[in-house]
Q: What sequence folds into this?
């Protein structure tokens, strides 16, 4: 008998329904599968994960099942079901149970089973008068011959001498089933019997209840459909079963939960389609904007005012930052509850690289810079060169999110996309257009080469400039180093990337020359600064290295953690670049000038 009582080790365990009474600390809903909450009532008494049931008229293994909840908790049982379609499902979904395709009665042999239509399959019955009533009501029944066993013989065949509960649902055939049990030979603690006329609220227990009373059981509950019995001397069971399923049991009906889950699945499919359509529209709008910019540029050339004209002087490094935000802002699109973060359109991802969605994702909620920067540094993040939101999107998934976030970029299309698509997910996230001149990224002869950051002194605890200083020209780099030093909090850190070279390898350089370029047509394509100039530039501003991480490929990007020189973390040295040589090139973007290019890698 012990073999029938072991839970299936591989099964997913669900907490007992009874554990939810007064247990709001467990937010996960506990599912009731039975049609009238029978499993809820039983679970108050049976709280363990090791049990055995006998289910006569087992039906579908999930829908309206009294035993599915217990199966998920690791119980096993004997399922008796004469309908072939349900028996096959039981065999498939309950392989650890004993599944018998027979009908039960007070004699063995065969009998005619009147099979109900799909909408009343559970009304299938051996009773001719019940079948006749269904037909008079207009139901179309079919008939098939099925094998019949006695319950006592079936229990003996499988060596079953005890069970925690017996459930009987046989559509008018209850007396025949219950009369074929040797109640002295089997120990069953609880018996649950459907106790109304089939498909009717009219009680119909008088013909079979005396069998249970004579066997020493007492009725603990009539729930409107079933009667629950326990041994007359089992006070614990009688008390636990005495109240129908109710709100204090904390269960949710499976039909409701499955309906909601199906609706949620459909909602997510529609939402994904909407996001994909919006991304495609964003790409089209971006293309149209660039066509308009190109047309404007051609018009300027025709009028003799091409973009090659010298830009006006920039504000001085000490100029006060703007006190108001730029007037032009894209309208928000309010996110739907549970909506996933939008992914930038492929046109934008192609410009900043890499294009794979995983590079924009942070599914584990990890800190953006891992162990390099403590969580306290994320109080206020300034992301200079925010691009189309690669860093921002990861920070929105980070646990915890930054207290404040400001993304600055010179690519207006990407800024507006982030304003529309990402800002609505957190009121503390902002994106602003850093409207400085760049012939390919942000054309306009009237634009300054650099601007102050719209941030107060000492306000930023984490300054991000990833793939930004690698594109900043010498005419602007001093300004932006001054700005970085100005806005960085006393305990703040700037995480930046740089291309560096050693002057000893370029003896032809003049003393005032400290930068190299790789593209004569667009020097911002890659700007490489001299190592000693870089260190001197930090020292002149009261800054120092906290981290200096050499590139993985010689000559490529260094990662620099920069702090104020009084910070305890200051003191890192710049190691030699002895990485292996190799080639690292960004993907070529045809006609990139037509689409514009973000100032960052994000």
A:
């Amino acid at each position: 008998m012990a073999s029938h009582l072991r839970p299936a080790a591989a099964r997913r365990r669900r907490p007992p329904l009874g554990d939810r009474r007064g247990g709001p600390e467990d937010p996960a809903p506990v599912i009731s599968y039975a049609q009238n909450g029978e499993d809820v009532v039983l679970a108050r008494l049976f709280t363990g994960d090791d049990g055995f049931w006998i289910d006569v008229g087992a039906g579908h293994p999930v829908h309206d099942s009294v035993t599915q909840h217990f199966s998920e908790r690791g119980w096993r049982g004997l399922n008796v079901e004469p309908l072939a379609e349900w028996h096959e499902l039981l065999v498939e979904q309950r392989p650890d149970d004993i599944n018998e395709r027979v009908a039960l009665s007070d004699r063995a042999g065969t009998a005619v089973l009147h099979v109900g239509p799909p909408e009343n399959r559970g009304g299938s019955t051996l009773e001719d008068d019940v079948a006749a009533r269904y037909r008079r009501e207009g139901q179309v029944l079919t008939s098939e011959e099925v094998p019949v066993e006695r319950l006592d013989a079936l229990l003996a065949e499988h060596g079953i001498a005890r069970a925690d509960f017996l459930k009987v649902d046989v559509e008018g055939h209850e007396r025949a089933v219950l009369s074929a049990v040797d109640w002295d030979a089997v120990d069953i603690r609880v018996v649950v019997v459907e106790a109304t006329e089939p498909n009717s609220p009219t009680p119909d227990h008088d013909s079979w209840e005396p069998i249970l009373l004579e066997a020493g059981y007492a009725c603990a509950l009539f729930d409107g459909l079933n009667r629950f019995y326990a041994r007359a001397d089992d006070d614990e069971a009688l008390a636990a079963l005495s109240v129908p399923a109710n709100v204090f049991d904390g269960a949710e009906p499976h039909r409701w939960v499955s309906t909601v889950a199906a609706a949620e699945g459909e909602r997510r499919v529609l939402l994904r389609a909407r996001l994909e359509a919006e991304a495609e529209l964003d790409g089209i709008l971006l293309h149209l904007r660039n066509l308009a910019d190109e047309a404007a540029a051609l018009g300027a050339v025709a009028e003799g005012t091409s973009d090659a004209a010298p830009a006006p002087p920039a504000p001085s490094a000490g100029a006060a930052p703007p006190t108001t935000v730029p007037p032009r802002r894209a309208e928000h699109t309010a996110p739907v509850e549970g909506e996933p973060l939008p992914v930038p359109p492929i046109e934008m991802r192609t410009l900043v690289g890499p294009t794979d969605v995983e590079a924009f994702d942070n599914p584990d909620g990890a800190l953006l810079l891992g162990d390099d920067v403590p969580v306290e540094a994320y109080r206020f993040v300034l992301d200079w060169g925010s691009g189309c939101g690669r860093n921002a999107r990861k920070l929105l998934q980070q646990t915890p999110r930054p207290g404040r976030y400001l993304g600055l970029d010179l690519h207006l299309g990407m800024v507006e996309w982030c304003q529309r698509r990402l800002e609505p997910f957190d009121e503390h996230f902002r994106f602003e257009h850093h409207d400085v001149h760049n012939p390919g990224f942000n054309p306009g002869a009237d634009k300054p080469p650099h601007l102050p950051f719209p941030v107060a002194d000492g306000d930023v605890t984490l300054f991000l400039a990833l793939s930004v200083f690698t594109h900043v020209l010498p005419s602007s780099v001093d300004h932006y180093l001054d700005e970085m030093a100005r806005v960085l909090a006393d305990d703040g850190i700037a995480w930046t990337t740089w291309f560096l070279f050693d002057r000893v390898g370029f003896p032809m350089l003049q003393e005032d020359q400290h930068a190299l370029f790789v593209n004569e047509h667009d020097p911002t394509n890659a700007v490489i600064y001299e190592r000693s100039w870089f260190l001197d530039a930090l020292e002149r501003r009261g800054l120092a290295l906290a981290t200096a991480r050499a590139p993985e490929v010689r000559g490529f990007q260094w990662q620099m953690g920069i702090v104020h020189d009084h910070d305890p973390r200051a003191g890192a040295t710049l190691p030699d670049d002895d990485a292996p040589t190799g080639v690292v090139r960004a993907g070529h973007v045809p006609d990139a000038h037509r689409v514009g290019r973000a100032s960052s890698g994000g």
Q: What stands out?
A: The chain has three domains: 37-103+151-251, 264-306, 307-311+361-595.
